[in-house]
Amino acid sequence: MEFLEQAGPLQFVGIVVAVVVLYILSCIRIFFEYQRGVVFRLGRALPEPKGPGLAMVFWPIDSMTRISLRTHVQDVPPQDVITRDNVSVKVNAVVYFRVVDPMKAVLEVENWSIATHQLSQTTLRSIVGQANLDELLAEREKINQRLQSQIDEQSDPWGVKVSLVEVKHVDLPEIMKRAMAKQAEAERERRAKVIHAEGEHQAATKLRDAAETIDKQPKAMLMRFLQTLVDVGAENNTTIVFPIPIDLFTPLLRPGGREDE
Known about the structure:
The chain contains nine helices and eight strands. By secondary structure, it is α+β, with helices and mostly antiparallel strands. A hairpin with a 2-residue loop joins strand 2 (35-41) and strand 3 (44-45). The model has no long low-confidence stretch (mean pLDDT 82).
C-alpha cells in the first residue's frame, strides 16, 4: 500500500493495465483441430464445446476439460473364457474407438476411456462364451462384427463411437492342440482314402467302357495287340514276341484233342 501511495497515478494505471493484460493472456486457450474443450462456468457446462482454434477461459470462474477426437487404440488383455462347447481358451483383442460428442463424454461418464476399456473386456468374455470353438477359429469376422456392434451400442450414451474390434489371438490348451492335430491328421487320411477309392472307381468305369467297345468291335482287340507290340519293340531289348491266334489252341483245349464234327 505504501508503494501505491508513493507511486503516481500513471504508474498505478500502468500496473492495473499490466495485470489485466496478463490475466487476459492467461485466459487464452488454443485448441488443435482434433481437440475440443468442455467449459464449466460456475459449475454449469456451457452449451457448446470450445475449439478448434482460439478460445477464452476465464478462470477462476471457468474450468475446462480437453477432449481428443482422434481414434484411440486399446489392447484388451487376454481373457479366460469357456466357450459354449466347454473349451477353456484365452482370447485378447484390440479396440478402435473415438469421441463423437465431447459433451456426453464429459457429462455422462467419469472417464470415457477407462469405461470403454472395461466394457470391451466384459463384452469380449460374453460374446466368446456364446460361441463354439470351431466358430471362434473359423468365423473370426462374424465374432468381430458382433463385438463391435454390442460395444458400440452400449458406449453410444457416452458419446463414444466404436469403429472396429478385432480378435488378435486365441490361445488353446496343449491338450486341445494335440487333439486338433490328431483330428486334422485323421481328416487328411480320410480324404486320401476317398480320393484313392474315387480313382479306382473311375479306372474300373473306363475299363468297363473299353471292354464294351472291344466286344462290339473285334478288330479293336487286334489294333490294341499291335500297339502293344510296338510298345514292346520300341527300345533295344532281347524280347521277341510272336503273335499267335488263340484259335489255333482251341482244338487242343477240347477233350480228346479233336474238333467237334
